Structure formats: structure tokens, C-alpha cells
Amino acid sequence: MKPVTSFISIPVLPERIEGLKRLANNLKWTWDLSTIELFRRLDSDLWETTNHNPVKMLGVISQRELEHASQDDGFLAHYDAVCKSLDNYLAYKSTWYQRISPKRTNILVAYFSAEFGLNECLSIFAGGLGILAGDHLKSASDLGVPLVGVGLLYQQGYFRQYLNEAGWQQEVYEDNDFYNLPLTLERKLDGSPATISVNYPGRVVIARIWRAQVGRVPLYLLDTNVSVNQPEDRDITDQLYGGDNEMRLKQEILLGIGGYKALETLGLRPTIYHMNEGHSAFLSLERVLRLMQENQISFWQAFEAASAGMVFTTHTPVAAGHDYFSPGLMDRYFSDYYRLLGISRYDFLALGRLNPNNDAESFCMTTLALRMASYSNGVSRLHGKVSREMWKGLWQNFPIDELPITHVTNGVHIDSWISRDMEQLFARYLGAKWREDPEDQLGWQRVERIPAEELWRSHERRRERLVAFSRRRLAAQLTRRGSSPAMVRMADEALNPDALTIGFARRFATYKRATLIFHDPDRLFKILSNPDRPVQLIIAGKAHPKDDPGKELIRKIVQFANQDRFRRKIIFIEDYDMTVARYMIQGCDIWLNTPLRPQEASGTSGMKAAANGVLNVSTLDGWWDEAYNSAVGWAIGRAEVYQDAAYQEQVEAEALYTLLENEIVPVFYERGSDGLPRRWIQMMKTSIQTLSPFFNTHRMVGEYTQRFYIPGSVHYLRLADHNLAKSKTLAEWKARIKQNWNQVKIEPIMDHVPQSIEVGGSFETQARVILGSITPEDVRVELYLGPLDANGNIIDPKVFEMELIGPESEGVYRYQVGAVVCCSSGLHGYTIRVLPNHPDLVNPVTMGKVTWA
Predict the structure, then answer these.
(1) Residues in contact with 386: Cβ distance below 8 Å, sequence separation at least 6, in sequence order
(2) Rounded mean pLDDT of 519-533?
(3) What DSSP element (H or E) covers 377?
């Protein structure tokens, strides 16, 4: 039955504690343990049953409990301290960004992502991408970076997982109740909801704008479930990653184009747009369109200014993981948009194609983002290299290491992921520096001051809590499946709170190889069942609803766990979420990661574990490829890649078993007279000291800010000044260069190069460069020098700019370079190249023009 009208019911709090509403609606509480303890103190059982949602909690708690709290001196002292702490945090005027930002540069960053993982109660994320985005906002808030987030508000979010009796994953979708979440509906001055409209084929779709306040940072979320929309359009924001490919396109249009319009509606004018993965890449076209309309200029003239303020982060090292849309689908949704932009269908589709001349090629969102952004990056050193290899077709004739995809290694928001026990140890022995400046390596060295006894006892408490939590979840799982009371009671005997505990929890994609440790069940059983040195496994994770091979991995693991010999030593925790993740990364002894190199872009769960003193065991992929050394954990293999996947699995499974048998288990159970595993504890300390200063989102966001956000904003504002005068000039210059580039030729003159040079000796060389109608001011001529490999290719090159001597004839110029020092022995070679050069060009490689000798 539909209502004739509707209204919002809001909780009534005693005046003395009315500030609880404000505390609940600022997601700063998600990384402030004191605020969380305040709500737990109000009603700890209700905190758990509301899925850690203080807004819902305040709506259902009894008035008697609230009145009691408002008269409890202890609660009020705690409440006043928390309120004051939030006030001070929001009012603080000497943040990191305020200290380092250039004067008079008015920047604003808009960070777009299809998912944001801020807390388990706000189900608008699926996994690592969303958690990373949530941590990005939290660190931006802590650092004071002027940033806003933009995403979609999913009615059902990601699915809840349960397993049937056969161990096969089942999915359940639950509606988000927006009015009982830490969300605020943005409104106009007249009190009506603020909305935006987006054009879809034959209709207009309306979306409301909600705000989740994340400390100092607002996150704006779009919701199409409004009555004025057609039923199918109300479902656009129904499920995260739900529906078919056309639904994905609808969502990405809303995220990119609608998200841009939402910021415009709210009066926000970002200088930088950061696309976290390709889902939001259509925003780049909307930005171009708006600059065209405001300045009465062409697409390519507006493109230059828009591109200057675009940052793109790719997270996917597997081609199949990127979004592709057929030409027919693009025509259906963008035919009118082609005309608005004033470009042809060919030019529009070319923006999303590797080969613009292949009319059958699908439109790729990653290709669009790479073409539109001036700054592009992968999320680890290895992933940057893999991404350059994947997308080298966009910039042919350039050395792969020079392609305009760099890397910014991911991190984690340490405050959000460390246990209460660890936080107290850090506060006692490290001071406040680790929280205010987690990049400060000297501050982290104070971890050595933590007494071994205290660190180990704190860790043991976390393991005991993990075991207790796992038993409760296992009992609930068995009860839900209809298991016998005897079987349910056996859950109380699962796991051993004193045993070496290995955790594996992540998305169940096949390349992550969750079953690698089960490759030889008999050998695994011997490792787990040693009565003097017991080992146990706790596993969790979800497969995508359409990923049957991923679901099959879960089924196999559950079958192993149900065998009598493994029953108390291996458990699978259903419905992996942030709550499960916290228990596991805080309470395990070992964090296991087994991806098939090089298919893990970064991975952040191991970083969270490391901050809690949990040691990592992983193949050398993603972040571990640059983090690993033998003092902080273990590597499975030595980064070998075999053509035969089955053989690779066998080799790496053997390596894992050998590590467990010969190194990991012995070190864990090597106890002194005081009962402490001192070598293990030292590895815990070294891991925290070495990894935490770098693998955190404060360092990551700081790197984005200094390398991309500030320079990009300065560049954008320069191009946008005076009605985009410099943007127009740059576009015209590019058009002229592209039209005449085929005139550029090089004739090396090697009269001054000897056949052999002593190490430390030098040489000089010249070149005749034919430029035609292009001028010397338009180019940069470079010597490209390095050792030669077995195939005669230059490796590890050094680049030297050549100096213009003068013209030889019309359009022909002589260049030279002198005193080039040879720094190593062996066979060397060089070549000469010409690149476009312009003061407003961020990176000449993005033009795709180069001439080699």
C-alpha cells in the first residue's frame, strides 16, 4: 500500500547530549576510537545490532537510556571530550596542506569513484577499490587537502553472502535506508531537495544529491530512486556492479556527467578532477562541454584546459577488467552528445579506441581516461610498469618506460585499521607523531621502545578475540544452514587461541589463487596438525555474483574445511565485510596473499595487517614486490613467471609449504625461557617500523597533491585565464604541429665520435635536423644514449638535450651536444630524436609525435 504523503521522523535527544546527532553524522567517528567507545557506552548491544550505525542507533534507542546518559557524569565527561575533539579537528588551521600549499593558489579537487568504503553500515562498496577510495577521503580530511568526493548512492549496495550446504555462494541484497544512515539530503534555499538532470535516450533522468560528511571532506552521492523517474531509471542506482553492460553504461553516465553537474549545482568549481578507475571518465567530456559553452570555443580548444586538470588512476592490470561498450550502444546513448561537443562520431569514438580506424572496436573507458588526463598512474611500482605495457598502443614509437603512466603506490588509513590495543601502545611509546605525520620514519623507530612482553600480550589478546569472533560466526553459519545442535556446539571447539593463525581474506577472483595452500592436502594437514606446533587457517571473501570460477574456489575450500581432519583447523567466515576484515587483520599472525604475478595491481589488506604487527607471506606481486625484505616477512618464490600456469602453481605451492615448515612455524614456536617468541616479535617491530611510514594514505594523498593536484591546478588556471586564451593557443599549436610533423627528419653527423671511449671519457656529436615549416622553438632535440642488449636495443638510457647551433638553410638546422660522459664499460649506442616542445605541454609524449634518427 502506497502512502498518500510521507514525512521524516527524527530522534529527540535530551538537550544536554543533543550533539550526539552531529557526532553520528560526521564519519570522522569511523577512525576515532574514542567516539566509537562513546556510542558503545550508550548501548553496546545496540551498537552491534545496528551494524555500527550511530544514526540508526539514536533512532531506536529507548528514551529512558538517553535520559540516563544525559545525567551520567562519567558519560557526560566522555561526551564533552569527544565533542571538543571534533570541534578542534574541524577548526584546526595549520594542517599539512595549509603548510605546504603555494600562496594564492585556490585549488579544489573532485575525487570521483564508483564505490567508497567508509564503514560497514554504509554499503556502497564492493572491495579494495572502495576501501582505498574511503581511505583517500579520510587522509585528505586529516591533511586538510581541499577535496570533495563524488559517487553513487546505491539502494542495495553490494550483496550479503551466505553459503548453502554444498558450500556454493548465494547472494542476498538488502535495501539501504538512507534516512537512517549518516547521510544528509542536500536541499535548495526553499527546502526542496537539490537535484540534477541527465539526458538519456528519449528522456531525462533526475537524481537527488546526498552528502556524507567525512571529517572535513564532503562526499556527494547521487540517487535516482525518485518518483518522477520511470521505474527502469529509478533502478540505475539500485545495485553496485549489478545488471548488464547497458546498466553499467547508465551508471557511468550518471557518475561522470551527473557527478559533474552535481558539483556545479552545489556551486563548486573544482580545478582538478581525479578519476579513480575509468568508471567516471565521462566527466572529462562534460568538463570540455562546459568550457566550450562558457567560452564559445571549439572542442579541441577546451580540451587543453580540461585535460590540464585531469588525473586518472587505473587499478586493473587485466584487460578483461576494464569497461568496454559496443559502438552501437555508444551511438544509442551519445549521438546527441557528439553534436553538442561539435565533433564527428569518428572523433568521439576515437577517444575510447586504441585504433580509431577500426569501426568494430568497442569504446573503452580506460582509453578515454588515458587520452583525456594529463596525469595518469598505476597503484604500485610493478603495476605502473604493467600498465605501460598494457596501453603502449596509445603511444607508439616511444620507449615503454617513457609512456605517460607513472605510479603512486597505494596505502591505508592507519587510524582506521589498527586495533585499540595497538593504538594504545603507539600512544604510549611513539607519542602523537605517528598519527599526525605517519610518514615520519624517525617517529616509527620508537616502536623499538615497546617492550616485547607488552607487544606480544597485546597481539595475543587480538588473536583470542579473533578466535572467539570466528567461533560465534561459525555457530551462526551452521545454525542458518540447519545443522544439528551437536554440530553447532562443535563451533566452540574450532580453532586454538594459542596456535599460529594464518589469515586469507579478499575477493575470490581466480588470479588470487585462494586454493594454492590446498595444492597438497596431505602436506598441509601435516603442517596444521603438529601437536607441538599447531597451525590454523581462517579464510573469508566474496566472489562476484557472475564469477562462477571464483565461487568454485569457495566451494572447494568449504569442502576442505568440512573434512574431519581439517574441521577444527580451517574455517571459512561468510559475508566478508569491514568488521570481519578488522578482526582478521588485527588478530592473525600471518597474512597470506597468493596472486599470480603480475595480476595484483596493489593489494592493501596486507598493509593493514602490517600496521597491526601481522607478518606478510606473499608472492612478489603488487605492493609486496616493492615492500618485501627478509626482515619484515616472507616471499613465495622469487618473482618467476612460467608459461605453464599449472607448473607455476605447483612450484609456488611447494615454496609456500617449505616456508611454513622450515622458517615460519619454527620461528613462531621458538620460545625463550620467558615464553616469548623474540625473533618473531622483532620481525613484528621491524615490519611496523619499515612498512607503516610508506604504505599509508597520508603519504599517498600527499604524493597525489604535490605531484598532480597542485601542478595540475596551476596549469589549469593558467590555461583557463582570460577566457582560455592559452588553451586556444595551445590547441592551435598542436594542430599545426600534427599537420606538419611528417616534415621532420634527422641526419646524424658522427664525425666527432671515436670507435672506443675509456670509462669516464666523453664525446660530442652533431645532427642535421630538417623541420620544414616547424620552428626550432616548437621542438626539443635529444641524444638518447645507453648500453646495448643482446638484440642491439638501447637499455637504461640517458637523455641529453642537444643545443641549436644555427640554421643551415631554410627549414634545416644543425644541433650539437658536447662532453657526453661514458660512465660504464661495454657496448654502447645512441640515437637522436625530436619531440614537440611547448611551455604549456605537460608531457610531450601525450601528443604521440616523435621522430627518431
Answers:
(1) 317, 378, 598, 601
(2) 97
(3) strand 375-378
- pLDDT score of 651: 96
Write down the residue that cell numbers 597505494 correspond to.
410
Q: Is the pLDDT of residue 10 over 70?
A: no
Contact 30, 118 (CB under 8 A): yes
Separation between Cα atoms, residue 328 and residue 354, nearest integer Å:
17
Cell 590555461 sits on residue = 719
| Burial letters 221-238, b for 16+ CB under 10 A, else e | bbbbbeeebeeebbbbbb
In the predicted model, is pLDDT for residue 8 greater than 60?
no
For domain 414-695, give its CATH number from 3.30.300.30, 1.10.287.1080, 2.60.40.10, 3.40.50.2000: 3.40.50.2000
Residue type, 399: P
Sign of the CA dihedral running 34, 37, 41, 46: positive
Residue 507 near residue 128 (C-beta atoms within 8 A): yes
The predicted pLDDT at position 749 comes to 85
Decide if 257 contacts 337 (C-beta within 8 A): no
- Is residue 498 pLDDT above 90, yes or no? yes
- Amino acid, res. 534: P
**CA–CA distance, 233 with 203 (Å, rounded to integer):** 10
Class level of CATH domain 96-354+374-410+708-716? alpha beta
Looking at residue 1, its pLDDT comes to: 59
Global pTM reads: 0.96
Q: Are 165 and 551 in contact (CB under 8 A)?
A: no
Alpha-carbon distance of 108 to 129, in angstroms, equals: 22
Q: Do the two domains 96-354+374-410+708-716 and 414-695 of this chain adopt the same fold?
A: yes
pLDDT tens profile 753-809: 777 887 878 888 899 999 999 999 999 999 999 999 988 899 999 999 999 999 999
Rounded to 5 degrees, what are φ and ψ at 307?
-65, -35
Residue 371 confidence (pLDDT) above 90: yes
CA 161 – CA 243 distance, rounded (Å): 18
CATH topology classification for 744-852: Immunoglobulin-like (2.60.40)
Q: CA-CA distance, 55 to 25, in Å (whole number)?
A: 7
Q: H or E segment at 652?
A: helix 645-659
pLDDT at 9: 56
CB atoms closer than 10 angstroms to residue 800: 18
Q: What is the DSSP string of 154-215?
A: -SSBSPEEEE-TT--EEEE-----GGGSS-EE-B-TTSSBPEEEEEETTEEEEEEEEEEEET
- Pinpoint the alpha helices (H) of 296-446: 299-308, 327-341, 345-350, 365-372, 381-390, 414-417, 420-429, 433-436, 441-444
On the 0-12 / 13-18 / 19+ scale of CB atoms within 10 A, 540 is buried
Query: Which residues on adjacent β-strands are paired with residue 211?
Result: 184, 220
What whole-number distance in Å separates Cα of residue 105 and Cα of residue 705?
Answer: 13
Q: Tell me the per-residue pLDDT of 379-404, one tens digit each, with 9 for 90 and over.
A: 999 999 999 999 999 999 999 999 99
Q: What is the rounded average pLDDT of the residues 65-79?
A: 96
Q: Where do the domains of the chain lie?
A: 15-91, 96-354+374-410+708-716, 414-695, 744-852
Distances (CA, A) of 398 to 130, 380, 394, 517, 836: 34, 22, 10, 42, 13
Asked if the model's pLDDT at residue 6 lies above 60, the reply is no
The closest of 430, 307, 376, 434 to 731, measured between CA atoms, is 307
The C-alpha cell that represents 647 in the structure block: 607448473
Looking at the chain, the number of H-run helices and the number of E-run strands are 33, 28
